[in-house]
Amino acid sequence: MAKVSQIEDPQFWRAGAISIVLVMLIVLIMLTVDSLAAITVGGSHVPPYTVINQKIGYKLESSRGIDVPTIGEKELLFQHEYTPAEAEALIDKGKLVIQSRACMDCHTFFGNGAYYGPDLTKAWLDPAWEGWKGITGAETRAEAMTRFLMDPVKYRTWGRTMPNLHLSREEATAIVAYLKWMAAVDTNGFPANFGQISVNQ
Amino acid sequence: MYRSQQLALKYLAAAIVIFGAMVVAGLMSAYYYINPDFLFGLLHFNISKTLHIDTLVIWLLFGFIGAVYWYLPEEFGIEPVGIKAAEVLFYVLCAAIAVVTLVFVFIQYGPSNEVGMWLVNQGRKYVEAPRWAAVGIVVVMLVFAYNVIGTAIRARKITGIVGVLIVDLIPLIVLYLDAFPAARNMSVDLFWWWWLVHMWVEATWEVLIGCIMAWALMNLLGTSRRIVEAWLYIEVALVLGTGILGLGHHYFWIGTPQYWLAVGGFFSAFEPLPLLGMVIHAIYDAGTHHMKTTNRPAFYWMLAEAFGNFIGAGVWGFMMTLPQVNLYSHGTQWTVSHGHFAFWGAYACGVISVCYLVLQKVRGSAFLDGITWRWAFAALNVGLVGMVGALLISGFAQAFIERAQGGSTLEAFIAGQENFWFLDGMYARFAFGLIFAAGYVVLAYDLLTIGRRLPVHAMAVAE
Amino acid sequence: MKFDLLETALLLGGIAFLAGCYGLLYGVGRLAQRQSIMLAGFACYAFLCVLVAVIVSTTPLAGPWKAIVVVFALGFLGIPPVTWRFLERTHPHRRRS
Ligand code: HEM
Ligand code: HEM
Ligand SMILES: [Fe+2]
């Protein structure tokens, strides 16, 4: 019975394994090339870093049925208009600060990381900052975030507190820029129903 | 005994020690959730959690490496090449791990520049170790690959299992190179990071443990090589056939195009199917050989591996892998529940099984059994399943309150974390964690002593 | 209300879990050559089909995902017997019956 011996033959299965893996890898590589184009800065899903000079929102787009970031009129960060080079340097610094303090081992970014602190994907848009402006005595959201990040223990709100990670003003500024830029990335609607109450006006 | 087998013993012993460190760090991490003031100002959650998951990766890798060093000379009948270098590197690696641990505990954070990345902490989940240590890991893996490939060349022989192993080691090492870059763009960073994490645990590691289990099966049950190899190829085809594009279940929300919802949901939905095949295989082997096995603990841990892999990866994974569910479960304690169950079932049980197989040979026991291993088996599995159940309850509460109702703001986050169900889950997780830790102690004791204690008594128990 | 989220997830987990029970009982039944255990296995599978029907008719999953759940369930039906037959063929000396 030829059929039986084929089923018993490891060579037969090896050929099958190799072909399946090759096909999958080829598809994966094609999708990767396409995705990298979408997620490089300035691609269809990830805005240029200069987006930090503009107003960011998060609104339901009815054609896709999900929330997507909106990029609006000019809204300066720290009363400064960043050139592309400046914006890139600032974001670069922000990423290094985030890595050096291992923020991701307490927080999630786009839902990835650790779950001890809140998700930071849309932290820039968090309605809580309105209240924090009063608490920190800051004029703007960016300033309130900076003050919170530099001394979170002073502004503790509930049992769990973010520790003081000894961020310099420059480092805290870079984080704020990073979070603002991140809020403008199109995440296919994650998180859903974000701050339905007060984000968009 | 071959020298490479003596090295294997060192690797396995170190694996079990690091497993212990991991349990301690896990208990600490869990304790922060019920007492957030714990060690405040001294050592925070992110450090203990980093230690927990980094030691997880290290002890499993040590277990795999140890298993391969053990079976390699038996496969070829000669001493593997380059063992001397591997022996030196073992000590270097252990010293490096100790240094990194001290740096994490006492220095914690570096400057926010390249110096910090090279010397202190890279802050990327699972691969936090500073770059100098990551270089060390690459070197160790390269020498390991050289041991395997060089031995095959010297023996002028390649078996199916070693062939698969060699082909698997290449992507495994290449993927690890993603432990170095600090991509500025978070979407790009996470894109490649998931290649590393997903392709390790759901592809290359699955194949690696498949090779090790193939050797273990031939050893434990005397299954013929032909059968074991045919089965290994089928496993590779099915696991990689679904797992490679299953990568897409991590590309739903990180800025990648929307087609990943379809691709990732589709392929990962089928990932559990091959795992059921492995369960059937385990039952078949158990049934046809049960009476003949001379190594009860190894046998039971191998069964636990098949079932744990199916339930932890398959059932728990399937629950949250469709994008409509994952939108809410993503990045909650629900994920933690799956992560624990899957790692335990797919890898930890397998490594423990190998430890018992090796010990039987080392201690020259014709028969390995007893009471102690049963207590360890029970406490570890009850502890783990209890933790996972508790985390699932917390995760449900979090997904519902924070994600679905509250819309993931800080206020919603706090509401979720302070919810009664969530908190109860956290307490229960800690309690079951203690049971798990007790099981670990018994396991370590049993591994030290089994086969040394009255073999006659063991025979009697086995009857 | 978003409570259907938890319901959906539990149903999905239930399907996979019942598939595991079916596989387990099928295997044990074959080993022990006991019809009753095999029947219990098929009962698990029947219950699984009920859950699939509930998913298809009540949950908010989009159509294509429901279709995938159905295919997934059918795949599970086949795996235990196919794997078993394969194992018996490849282990000729240990065939039990
Ligand atoms: C005493 C036992 C254990 C306790 C108390 C424990 C506790 C924890 C805690 C608190 C976290 C952090 C989760 C978060 O970010 O909120 C964690 C993460 C993790 N642990 Fe454990 N753990 C234990 C044992 C284990 C074992 C045995 C394994 C694997 C075999 C494991 C694998 C993991 C993994 C993979 C993560 C990362 C999960 C994720 O972020 O999704 N743990 N553990
Ligand atoms: C060997 C098998 C597996 C292991 C060790 C494993 C482990 C893990 C771990 C540790 C995570 C958390 C990653 C992180 O954020 O740090 C994770 C996430 C995930 N796993 Fe698995 N997994 C396995 C198999 C599967 C399978 C078969 C499925 C699907 C059917 C699956 C579906 C998922 C999904 C959807 C996530 C993302 C969770 C989220 O959105 O937060 N996994 N897995
Ligand atoms: Fe995955």
Summarize the structure.
With 463 residues, chain B is mainly alpha-helical. Chain B is 79% helix and 0% strand. Chain C has three helices and no strands.
Please state roughly what percent of the residues of chain A sit in beta strands, choosing from under 5%, 5-15%, 15-25%, 25-35%, 35-45% or over 45%. 5-15%
Low-confidence stretches of chain A: 197-201
Helix content of chain A: 40-55%
Strand tally of chain B, please?
0
Termini separation of chain B comes to: 31 Å
Radius of gyration of chain B: 22 Å
Q: Largest protein interface?
A: A-B, 82 and 87 residues
Structural class determined from secondary elements of chain B: mainly alpha
Biggest sheet: strand arrangement of chain A: 1-2
Structural class category of chain A: mainly alpha
The percent range for helix content of chain B is: over 70%
Helical segment tally of chain A?
6
State the order of secondary-structure elements of chain B, H for helix, E for strand.
HHHHHHHHHHHHHHHHH
Q: How large is the count of helical segments of chain B?
A: 17
Biggest pleated sheet of chain B: none
Number of domains of chain A: 2
- Total beta strand runs of chain A: 4
Give the name of the CATH superfamily of the largest domain in chain A.
Answer: Cytochrome c-like domain
What is the overall pLDDT average of chain B?
Answer: 93
Brief descriptors of the model:
heterotrimer; B: 463 residues; 79% helix; 0% strand; disordered C terminus; C: 97 residues; mainly alpha; 3 helices; binds protoporphyrin IX containing FE; binds fe (ii) ion
Describe this structure as you would to a colleague.
The complex is a heterotrimer of chains A (201), B (463) and C (97). Chain A is mainly alpha-helical. Chain A has helices at residues 2-8, 10-39, 84-100, 128-136, 141-150, 169-183, and strands spanning 54-61, 66-74, 108-109, 112-113. In chain A, 44% of the residues lie in helices and 10% in strands. Chain A folds into two domains: 6-39; 49-196, Cytochrome c-like domain (Cytochrome Bc1 Complex, Chain D, domain 2, Orthogonal Bundle), CATH 1.10.760. In chain B, 79% of the residues lie in helices and 0% in strands. Chain B contains 17 helices and no strands. Residues 456-463 of chain B have low confidence and may be disordered. The longest helix of chain B has 36 residues, at 186-221. Among the domains of chain B are: 1-157; 321-450, no CATH class. Chain C has one domain (5-90). Helices cover 85% and strands 0% of the residues of chain C. Chain C is elongated and about 50 Å long. The mean pLDDT of chain C is 87. Chains in contact: A-B, A-C, B-C. Chains A and B meet through helix 2, helix 3, strand 3 and strand 4 of A and helix 2, helix 4, helix 7, helix 8 and helix 9 of B. One protoporphyrin IX containing FE sits between chains B (23, 26-27, 29-30, 49, 52-53, 56, 335-336, 339-340, 343-344, 348, 433, 436-437) and A (114-116).
